[in-house]
C-alpha cells in the first residue's frame, strides 16, 4: 500500500471513530420508531391527497337531472340507439356532440359529459386527470369492426402473414410493388394487383385511417392502379373471379379432347370427299369416252348412271363436310372460351382486396385472409376471427366503446340509457355490418350498469401498454 493511501485510510478511521462517539452521546432511535414515523407521514399524505380529491370532486359541475350528455365521434351505433331510446317513450333528454375523442375525454374528466363515444381507449394521461378529481372510469364495448385483406381461396402467393407496414406498402400512393416477391422474403414472383371499395364504403374510410394514416382518406392516398368498386361484390369478383369462369376453366380438358376429335374427323372426311370427287371425275371421263367410242347404248346408260351416283355421293359427303365444319367451329369456340376463362382464373392468383369482416364471413369459402402482425415489431400473425376482433388482438380491428364513470353510472337516467343501448347493440351491430359481441359479454356489462356486479375499472396499469390486446371475451372461438 502506498504512503498516500495509508494516510487517507487512517484519516477515515479517525473521523469514523469521532462520529461514532458523537452519535453515542445522543439517544438512539429504534428501527420500529423509524417505520412508525414513515407510516404516519404516508397516512398524513394520503389523508391530504384524499381531501384534495374530495374537494376537486365537489368542485365538478352538477349534472342536469333528466339529461344524458354524450360526446366523441359520430359512432356507428349511437345515433340509432339514441333514436330508439327516444322512441321507447323515455323522458330522458339524450344530447350528443361530435367534438372528437380528445375533447370528449377531457370533458368526461371535467365532469361535463356522461359518456364518451370512441374507438380508442382513454389514455393514461386522460385517466390520470379523471382520477385526480375522484372519477373512476368504466369502459363498455358495444361492437367491433375490422377489415380483412384477402386473396382468392385455395390459391397461394408464397406467404400468409403480412405486417401492417407491408399492407400499407402494397396499397399506399406511389407504391413500387408490382409483384408479390417484392412484398417480403418467401413470397412468389406473381404479379400483384389491388382493389377495394370506393370512398362511399365504410371499409374505405376505416382502411384509410387505420392502414394509410389518412384522417380523411381519398383515392389520392392509394396507388394509381387501385381498382375501386361501387359494391363489395365487385371487389370480391376482382379477387376470386366469376363462378362461370371457374366452371368453364374446369371444362378445358374435355373441350380440348372434343376439339382434337372433331379436327381428326374433319381431316379424315376431307379424304373421303376427295375420293368422292375423284370418282366423279372418273365417271365423267367414262361418259365422255363412251360417247367418243360410240359404246352400246346400254353401256353408255350405265356410264351415265355411274356419274349420277358419284355426283350424288359427292353432294352427300360435301353436306356432311359442312356439318362437321360447323361442329368443329362450335367445339373450337367452346374450347377458346374455356381457355380464356382459365387464363382469367389464373390471373386472379395475384389479386388482393380488402373487405369488412362481416362481408368476408359471407364468402369465407371464396376468400383467403392474410394473418396480420401489428406495429410492435413482433411477428404475431393474428388471424381475423370473431374472437380476435372483439378482443382487439387483430391489428386491423377497432372496438366501438362507450366510456363513462361510476359517478355517471350511478345516475338513473344514464344507467337506463346504457341498458337500452346494450340491449339493442347486438341487433344494431349486425344491421350495421359490424361484429356483434357475444350474449355473455353484453349481459356482464349490463350487470355492471345495474350494480349486480362490480364493474371492471380502467386502471393505470392497463393503460401503460395500450396496444396490448384486451382479455379474450367469452366467445368460445380458439385463437389462431
Automatic annotation (TrEMBL):
PROSITE patterns for the chain: PROKAR_LIPOPROTEIN (PS51257)
UniProt keywords, alphabetically: Coiled coil, Signal
Residues in PBP domain copies: 92-402
Low complexity biased stretches: 460-480
UniProt xrefs under InterPro entries: PBP_domain, Phosphate_ABC_transporter
Disordered as annotated region, ranges: 450-480
Signal sequence bounds: 1-24
Full protein name: Phosphate-binding protein PstS
Species for this entry: Nocardioides dokdonensis FR1436
Amino acid at each position: 500500500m502506498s504512503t498516500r493511501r495509508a494516510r487517507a485510510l487512517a484519516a477515515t478511521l479517525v473521523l469514523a471513530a469521532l462520529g461514532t462517539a458523537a452519535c453515542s452521546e445522543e439517544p438512539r432511535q429504534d428501527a420500529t420508531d423509524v417505520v412508525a414515523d414513515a407510516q404516519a407521514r404516508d397516512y398524513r399524505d394520503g389523508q391530504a391527497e384524499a381531501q384534495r380529491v374530495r374537494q376537486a370532486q365537489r368542485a365538478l359541475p352538477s349534472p342536469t337531472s333528466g339529461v344524458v350528455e354524450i360526446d366523441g365521434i359520430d359512432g356507428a351505433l349511437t345515433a340509432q340507439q339514441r333514436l330508439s331510446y327516444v322512441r321507447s317513450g323515455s323522458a330522458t333528454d339524450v344530447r350528443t356532440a361530435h367534438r372528437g375523442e380528445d375533447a370528449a375525454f377531457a370533458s368526461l374528466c371535467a365532469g361535463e359529459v356522461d359518456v364518451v363515444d370512441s374507438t380508442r381507449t382513454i389514455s393514461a394521461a386522460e385517466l390520470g386527470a379523471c382520477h385526480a378529481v375522484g372519477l373512476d372510469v368504466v369502459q363498455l364495448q358495444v361492437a367491433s369492426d375490422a377489415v380483412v385483406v384477402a386473396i382468392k381461396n385455395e390459391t397461394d402467393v408464397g406467404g400468409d402473414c403480412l405486417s401492417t407496414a407491408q399492407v400499407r406498402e402494397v396499397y399506399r400512393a406511389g407504391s413500387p410493388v408490382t409483384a408479390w416477391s417484392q412484398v417480403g422474403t418467401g413470397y412468389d414472383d406473381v404479379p400483384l394487383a389491388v382493389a377495394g371499395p370506393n370512398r362511399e364504403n365504410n371499409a374505405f374510410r376505416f382502411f384509410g385511417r387505420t392502414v394509410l394514416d389518412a384522417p380523411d382518406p381519398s383515392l389520392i392516398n392509394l396507388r394509381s392502379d387501385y381498382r375501386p368498386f361501387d359494391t363489395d361484390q365487385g371487389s370480391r369478383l376482382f379477387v376470386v373471379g366469376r363462378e362461370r369462369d371457374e366452371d368453364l376453366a374446369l371444362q378445358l380438358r374435355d373441350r380440348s379432347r372434343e376439339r382434337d376429335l372433331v379436327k381428326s374427323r374433319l381431316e379424315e372426311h376431307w379424304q373421303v370427299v376427295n375420293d368422292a370427287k375423284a370418282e366423279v371425275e372418273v365417271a365423267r371421263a367414262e361418259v365422255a369416252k363412251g360417247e367418243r367410242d360410240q359404246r352400246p347404248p346400254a353401256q353408255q346408260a350405265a356410264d351415265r348412271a355411274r356419274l349420277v351416283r358419284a355426283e350424288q355421293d359427292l353432294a352427300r359427303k360435301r353436306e356432311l363436310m359442312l356439318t362437321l365444319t360447323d361442329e368443329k367451329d362450335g367445339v373450337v369456340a367452346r374450347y377458346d372460351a374455356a381457355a380464356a376463362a382459365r387464363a382469367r382464373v389464373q390471373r386472379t392468383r395475384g389479386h388482393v382486396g380488402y373487405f369488412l369482416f362481416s362481408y368476408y364471413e359471407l364468402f369465407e369459402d371464396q376468400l383467403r385472409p392474410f394473418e396480420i402482425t401489428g406495429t410492435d415489431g413482433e411477428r404475431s400473425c393474428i388471424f381475423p376471427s370473431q374472437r380476435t376482433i372483439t378482443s382487439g388482438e387483430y391489428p386491423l380491428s377497432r372496438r366501438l366503446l362507450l366510456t363513462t364513470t361510476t359517478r355517471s353510472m350511478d345516475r338513473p337516467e344514464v344507467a337506463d340509457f346504457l341498458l337500452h343501448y346494450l340491449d339493442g347493440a347486438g341487433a344494431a351491430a349486425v344491421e350495421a355490418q359490424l361484429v356483434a359481441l357475444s350474449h355473455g359479454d353484453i349481459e356482464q356489462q349490463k350487470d355492471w350498469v345495474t350494480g349486480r356486479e362490480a364493474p371492471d375499472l380502467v386502471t393505470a396499469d392497463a393503460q401503460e401498454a395500450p396496444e396490448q390486446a384486451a382479455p379474450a371475451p367469452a366467445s368460445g372461438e380458439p385463437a389462431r
